[in-house]
Amino acid sequence: MGVLAFATAAGSAAAGQWRDGAELYQKVCGHCHEANVGPVLKGRGLPPEYIQRVVRMGNRAMPAFRPTEIDDATLADVARRISSGAALARE
Amino acid sequence: MGSKSKALPKGISAAEFDKAVREMRAIVGDEHVLVDEEKLAPYRKIMMPVPDAQHELSASVMPDGVEQIQRIMKVANKYRVPVYPISTGKNLGYGSAAPVQRGQIVMDLRRMNRILEVDPELCTALVEPGVTYQQLYDYLQEHKLPLWFSCPAPSAIAGPVGNMVDRGVGYTPYGEHFMFSCGMEVVLADGQVLRTGMGAMENSNTWQVFKWGYGPTLDGIFTQSNFGVVTKMGMWLMPAPPDFRPFCIQYPNETDITKIVEALRPLRIAMVIPNAVVIAHTLWEAPCTPVKRADYYTGPGAIPDEAVKKIQAEHNIGAWNVYAGLYGTKETNDANWKIIEAVAAGTGGKIITQEASKGSKALEYRFDLMKGKPNLGEFGLYNWRGGGGSIWFAPVSQAKGSETLKQMQMAKTILAKYGFDYVGEFIVGWRDMHHVIDLLYDRSKPEEMEKAYACYDELLHTFAKEGYGMYRANTAFAEKVAATYGPVKRDVEKRLKKALDPNNIIAPGRCGISL
After folding, report:
1. The domain spanning residue B130 has which CATH number?
2. In this structure, are B195 and B49 located in the same domain?
3. Which of A57, B29, B135, B152 has the most crowded Cβ, counting Cβ within 10 A?
């Protein structure tokens, strides 16, 4: 019938279902922080707690992100990766 | 247990509010209702020039399905608590995820993020409110479907349902987004589920291909309104053209806007240029290039014209920068390209092709947006003044040169009076232009916030006096903007509200509609 119907799976990354912090970084954070829009975050040893707080509270022009967009576990993972300089895959 | 919420809905006691929250918890699960002030922080982040307290929410409820929303409607009616539905909540500068009135419970639909159907033959999709453009883009890529959509600038984190429902715009041939939507599912205040158009019929398979159905077409009343909660929406996708040729034409003078519009309008109406053309001012392009304002001006007030001229010269930016594209086959694009070259030559414009665009972030993100590739390049705007303050002033103009020049000069004069820069662009519909101005200010300074509020207020009323109305507005000015459209329209809206939502529980105050 030529129709792709995925009534439940939501195919590609659904919120709360990010594969890991690296994917989140690539799909969301990197659009600004790897593009001369927001400040560079990697390699600065920013504390993970600080990163998580800014993501939830926002900071000046940085938008705030809700738990429906970024779940706590993925947020903790991306904060750890940014802080420690762990792998943050980019296309 | 006493209520933890510090911003109760108007006229609701803490005890009643707690009962309503308890019943909502039973519907969606404890973890999907938030009342703690700290947890609600992301909903509170706004860019508008009013105190956070004015748009403080009492709670957030996060349903994952139509049936849960139906049940939430029942609870809201029972306790008369207002709920404010959001989709992705990334309508930054128009209100973000915060409710229109203090104390409302935000109903966050972001968890409902299923791409329900994509038909590659008919080029249609059916999606839920929590789907982002990035998600849809990735889906089409993963499934190797050569289909494009049109998206707004904050596309990586915003989504089609919220944008179409707010009548947002994008940059491809499908840039007037609501026009390219087809079929809605709406949960009404009484819990009934309405499917518009052909979707009202059992077993219909034409919901996403024919908009009108039989009798009145209802979709429009669920946009920029509060008559229901949109839970699904159909959208048309565009087949990726065999040849896509984006370009920019730069013009040296501000007054050139007159001849630009006169030259482009016929091409747009005849669809030689099929996409929603953008005519962007220097000060829109500069922050996205990126250029730092402080490198050119550090004094008080609006940036002087001489500094703007210097930016143009040093960064190869026009006073106006026209973005458009040709979408077709190589043969048709070759033929139309000759027309574009002739128009540019005849009007004193300099063409920049994709090949010549390398190195400019502004050109890169614009060219990507014209093929519906999500990015956040435009957020460079927020670095221009800094401080996280932004509201969009967005009047509609005729697509006539004299009108656009008049609007630009009016806006620039009023902005300068309050010390703000003219950061504007015109997005070309067929016969109209959305004149979009980002009123950028430093929200960390109370005096700038007051000035920004007063400036928008003066812009709104000065433009209204000339007969110019907004196409869209931030939630802080919803009431004032609605008032510019006169009493009869508002009375009809109120009567509809009374009929569809007699207890006034869905987003009262949204677009000025309330009982």
Report:
1. 3.30.465.10
2. no
3. B135
Q: Is B228 in the A-facing interface, judged by CB distances under 8 Å?
A: no
Is B379 within 8 Å of A65 when comparing Cβ atoms? Answer: no
The answer to whether B253 touches B346, Cβ cutoff 8 Å, is: no
Q: Tell me the sheet residues that pair with B322.
A: B249, B279
Query: Are A5 and B117 within 8 A, CB to CB?
Result: yes
Dihedral over Cα of B37, A24, B383, B417: its sign = negative
B62 in contact with chain A, both atoms CB, cutoff 8 A: yes
Strand partners, A62: A59
Summarize pLDDT for B406-442 with one digit per residue, the tens: 999 999 999 999 999 999 999 988 899 999 999 999 9
B118: contact with A, CB 8 A cutoff: yes
Are residues A10 and B142, on separate chains, in Cβ contact within 8 Å?
no
Give me the residues paired with residue B470 across strands. Answer: B395
| DSSP codes of every residue in B390-405 | EEEE-BEEES-HHHHH
Dist. CA B418–CA B266, nearest whole Å: 37
* CA-to-CA separations, B189 to B48, B71, B86, B88, B260, in angstroms, rounded: 29, 10, 15, 21, 47
Q: What percent of chain B has pLDDT over 70?
A: 99
> How deeply is B431 buried, as exposed, middle or buried, from its count of CB atoms within 10 A (0-12, 13-18, 19+)?
exposed
User: Can you read off the two tokens belonging to residue B160?
Assistant: 């089609």
B window 287-316, beta carbon within 8 A of A: 290
State the smallest CA–CA distance between residue B27 and chain A in angstroms: 17
- Structurally, chain B folds into a number of domains equal to 3
How many angstroms away from the CA of A84 is the closest CA of chain B?
25
Q: Is B39 an interface residue toward A (CB < 8 Å)? A: yes
Name the residues of B annotated as catalytic. Answer: 94, 471-472
Contact B145, B238 (CB under 8 A): no
Q: Flag whether residue B114 sits within 8 Å of chain A, measured between CB atoms.
A: yes
In a domain, B504, yes or no: no
Q: Is A60's CB within 8 Å of B90's CB? A: no
Q: What is the pLDDT of residues B373-417, one digit of tens each?
A: 999 999 999 999 999 999 999 999 999 999 999 999 999 999 999
- Using an 8 Å CB-CB cutoff, list chain A residues near B376: 31-32, 35, 37
**Is A21-84 CATH 1.10.760.10?**
yes
Last residue of a domain, one of B183, B212, B239: B239
CB-CB under 8 Å, A59 with B375: no
pTM for this predicted structure: 0.95
The type of residue at B309 is K
Shared domain check, B251 and B234: no
Write down the pLDDT at residue B356: 87
- Examine residue B508 and state whether it is found in any structural domain, yes or no: no
Residues 150-209 of B with CB under 8 A from A: 156-157
Q: State the residue range of the domain holding B185.
A: 115-239
| Closest alpha carbon within chain B to A59 | B388
Higher pLDDT, B102 or A8: B102
Chain B residues with CB inside 8 Å of A16's CB? 111
Give the residue among B229, B227, B237, B216 at the shortest CA–CA distance from B185.
B229
Domain-wise residue ranges, chain A: 21-84
CB contact under 8 A, A66 and B383: no
| Residue B308 and residue B196 share a domain | no
